Amino acid sequence: MVIHWLLFMTSGVLVPLTSCSPVVAQEGAPPAPKDPLLFESGPTRVKLSLDAVFQQSGVTGSWWNLSEQYAPDAGYKLDRAWAETWIKPGIRLDTSVNDDVSVYSGVSYVGSGNIGEDVFEQGYRGYWGVEDAYLGTRIELPDEESSLDLSYGRQPYKIGSGMLISVGAMNGFERGATTTFARRAWEEAGIVKWARGPVSIDGFYLNPNELRSGDTNTRLAGSKLEWNPDANQNLGVAYINAFESIYPYVAAPIRLIPDGRQGLNTIHGYGRWTPLPDTQPGWHVGGDYAHQWNDRIQMAANAYSAETGYSFSEQPLTPKLVYVYRSFSGDDPGTGRFEKFDPLFYEGAPPLWATGSNGSFSFLNSNLEAHRISLNLTLNPQSFMAFYYWHVRADEVNSPIQFGQAGRIAASGGEPQLVSGVPDPHLSDDFYVEYTRVITPQIFLTTGMAVSVPGDGLRELVDNATTWVGGLVNITVKY
User: Fold this and answer.
1) Residue 59 falls within a domain, yes or no?
2) What's the DSSP call for residue 345?
3) What is the pTM of this model?
4) How many domains, in total, are found in the chain?
5) Which of 68, 142, 146, 442 has the fewest Cβ atoms within 10 Å of its own Cβ atom?
6) How many CA atoms lie within 13 A of 173 on its CB side?
7) Distance between CA atoms of 155 and 188, rounded to whole angstroms?
8) pLDDT, tens digit (0-9, with 9 covering 90-100), for 448-473
9) For residue 333, which of 259, 453, 387, 413 has the smallest C-alpha distance?
10) Residue 305 belongs to a domain with what CATH number?
């Protein structure tokens, strides 16, 4: 049975305990041997791939025991264990037509499923379907300094670090694999990219691969200008328009805005920089700012992020320490405008845009403020540790955090009023620790533990709020 008081459908991403994003090489890792699945003959290159994941997860105190207060007859079990698995074989072809023109295409297929019921009470569910299916061409332009890349089909597309546009497919529910992100490609992504040196301009059309049970018919279009002077430095600005959608918004205190996303405009600026590359190469700063507006529903919302970190590459364990502050506006109950930020299709991995550990199941990047501190350690070339802490707060009290959960009658100015959200801004303090072992260049073992301690805002909603604890063991295979 679906727990209606806590079910939430994001418009493209279900935030996970751990995202199991494609594994990237880390500092100190041994070099990879020659790829046995890569075949080259003349101008043609064929790459076979195989990705697979198995993860065993377990939780206690799910949803901080809010079900006791808001769905006492549902019989929801706070403690549960389940497994998720998926496998994705694929092939990519690149070939040169002549010195100036090349074409490429890719196809992959995903099978995913759950064993046991997850925290959304979805169990023994699964789905087989096409993940990637795209065709593209790269053209060297006559000036010999710029190029044009055109592609269309089911493929990934990401802007910046993934604050708004990254995961183009929904996971979980009838597809299984709620937390391990089996699917990421957009159902349709038409991309035109012009590049000249470090400067590029994109135009894009995006149709997310949504669930049949939660299809919002969202369609996006926009453009992006980006400057990449170095592999770890970029500055960019993007414009995104949701020209079609039936995705609803919920205003404070509890008011439904049908088709709220349709007509949404977003300007997103972002960047990551190494200010002193010669004297302090380990120091980086980064930031994002997004402004949203929709005149049709009198909407104006804002979000921003500021980050700074330092990699102590000469110290034992090569520690990397990062601090991030983020704010996503909520709807102020005292105004006639709608101000709740729409996070669109963001990247929900802990190092990127997850807000909390277990809490990230519940907290979308909307009506939130968060401080995050992370520490990464390289134990040896094959072993890595990561520690995360989030202090999570509501941007607006008595205003929807998700879709109006915790609706209740409260006194306001001596008069009873229907409100939602939390009466105190402190939502939770979340902790996550993760250990990764590189077994072979293609096989990775990850174990993780997450703890979400309810803050005063949640404790005031239920008398015996519990600490939400979770753990996982994950095996990832990537060829």
Assistant:
1) yes
2) B
3) 0.90
4) 1
5) 142
6) 19
7) 7
8) 999 999 999 999 988 899 999 999 99
9) 413
10) 2.40.160.100
